[in-house]
Fold this sequence. Notes:
By secondary structure, chain A is mostly helical. Chain A has helices spanning about 5-40, 55-60, 65-80, 80-95, 105-130, 135-145, 150-180, 190-200, 205-230. The mean pLDDT of chain A is about 90. Chain B is of the alpha/beta class. At the A-B interface, helix 6 and helix 7 of A face strand 7 and helix 3 of B.
Amino acid sequence: MDIAAMLLRLSEGMLRSVTIFGLTLVFSLPLGLLVAFGRMSKWTPFTCLGECKSGFLRKIAGFKPVQLIVKIYISIMRGTPLMLQLMVVYFGPWFIFGIKISLAYNFYAVIIAFVINYAAYFAEIYRGGIESMSKGQYEAAEVLGYSKAQTFFKIIMPQMFKRILPSVTNEVITLVKDTSLAFVVAYAEMFTVAKQIAAKESSVMPFVGAAVFYYVFNLIVALAMEKAEKSVSYYQ
Amino acid sequence: MNENIILDVRNAKKSFDELEVLKDISLTVNRGEVLAIIGPSGSGKSTLLRCATLLETLDSGYLSYLGEKAADTGVNGRAEYASKAELKQIRSYFGLVFQNFNLFPHYTVMKNVTDAPINVSKRSKAEAYKKARELLIKMGLEDKENYYPCQLSGGQQQRVSIVRALAMEPQILFFDEPTSALDPELTGEVLKVIRKLAEEHMTMVIVTHEMAFARAVADRVIFMDGGVIVEQGSPEEVLVNPKEERTKQFLARYSEEQ
Ligand SMILES: Nc1ncnc2c1ncn2[C@@H]1O[C@H](COP(=O)(O)OP(=O)(O)OP(=O)(O)O)[C@@H](O)[C@H]1O
Ligand SMILES: [Mg+2]
């Protein structure tokens, strides 16, 4: 196989890596916000028990079910390897429910696993950003008569995004490299392709090519994020 | 009902856990009146303002603006608040200027001042900008409309926050120590604009440690200590010839520190 053919096949793999990357961001960035809201939920459906004499029932009154569920979800997502999560999402339907999985499912499995994993990380970043906002911003908005939604979307969220951009940059760069994990479910992204060619041709060249591809990919991502950070540097 | 009563607070009580911060406070503010509130640290001045501006809820007591009830003690002895819609209406009657400004840092001066009139009060953009420009000129900020808060001095930021509050055309404006976050050389410019508002008979309640200022602008001074109103009256009565021992002590200690 000549260099041109190798590069062509690698770039096909690259395209798939970029697809995973793009779709993961498109879904996990907004989903992360939803998860962050769940994580900060103060909903206590059993407050009526607060007046009870029994200490146990009073504890239940303070129970926040949404927050607890989301906390568990985040801790699992962050506490287990993404590779394992990928395999669970891919093989789970068959092992657990006996559903026969089609070959094309591996692409969906990759996107689902990446999205729910990255949403958990983004949620924690969002939460940190939201909680770092001063109470004064909420109070100023409240006195001016802004609704809760207006306060969040007009006042809090833009400032939160500025604060979290550096952490988001870290995650996004990690995501570029994480796309290679899709090989565990035999999805032919760039790393999988490089491995196949390398095995067939007994050469390290495909890996060198892949490394260059990943590096350039990340360089572009880093430049884009730098530009985003600059675009919000007009205020402090 | 007396149309001239803008703010009416009766028997207001507020505790934080075991700490009783407001013990049965009653006060009324009439249209056009400037009320100064003084008192030692921890006496409950900010808490009173925060309860009046609905940032904090009263445990019990009565609170109304222009005769519209925001809260009243219910049958169980606890304060019951009006509906969300009623409170929204009531919020449009007052403005609050914070000690540390709390401007929106991602908005220009102009947007800080016009965003709430446009998006909360639903005024037209043209109208909001016109009003904002008038106020900015009045406060000596006409050349700053495209600046971001971080590009302004503390005194300028506080004047912008006063403009932001005034742009909502409140019936009454509260100030919580508007100059204590400022360098001494910047307090003058902020006090000057507040004095200008007083001359125009803007109804104001000002918590302050600036005794000379309180004496100059206030129609009435309240001295608070330990969650109660110890003494109130004209600036002369309270600041020059106080009757209560606690007021005398506070003023003596205060003039020593100056
Ligand atoms: N959110 C809160 N939770 C618990 N305690 C509070 C809270 N806010 C105020 N306090 C307490 O209530 C008391 C009165 O506070 P407040 O801020 O009203 O005093 P102040 O008269 O404004 O004092 P200063 O002149 O220092 O501003 C203080 O002892 C304070 O610690
Ligand atoms: Mg205070």
